[in-house]
Amino acid sequence: MNKAEMVDALETRLGGRKEATTAVEAVIELIQLTVAKGDKIAISGFGTFEKQVRNARTGRNPRTGEAVKIKKTSVPRFRPGTAFKEVVSDTKALRAYQAELKAKATGTAPAAKTAAAKTTTPARTASGTRTTSAAGTAATKTAAKSAPARTTAAAKKAAPTTRTTAAASKSAPAKTTTRRVAKKA
């Protein structure tokens, strides 16, 4: 996305092309002037713009191999914030962020923050069955009744299961053998 595309994207949100152009140019100009003075700009959730000073040093000309003096210089530096890193690296976080922005634009609460989405999952007892509180929803209660009971890891180690298999010989296909198979925890 370049500057013109950014203006186009902001045009609908800010009410017109002139306002969007003014806003984009004002933000860019402010960042450039502030960093050039040596101050730091920290935008919460987005990142930090700052001036980084590189000291004078001696380098080498790759063509001739002779030593070359490099003057002291300043360069702009951007360090992304943790929220920005998370949105870029995680697709789930990106979808949640897009839903939040869409909800802000329409003036409704995002789905993740509504009362229906705040229902908690049922707790598990020591035996592995699900329990629900009195405030649980009907869907949660239905899931609790239909969920199979789970055994703990200690119970799996203590009681190996038995498996019945058919014999591999042709003479006695009806003969079955039982062997003990230990399950991995």
TrEMBL record:
The family classification in the record reads: Belongs to the bacterial histone-like protein family.
**Residue ranges, annotated region (Disordered):** 105-185
Point to the regions of Low complexity compositional bias.
105-176
| Keywords assigned by UniProt, alphabetized | DNA condensation, DNA-binding
Designated name of the protein: Histone family protein DNA-binding protein
Any single Gene Ontology cellular-component annotation: cytosol
Molecular functions (GO terms): DNA binding; structural constituent of chromatin
- Gene Ontology terms describing biological process: chromosome condensation
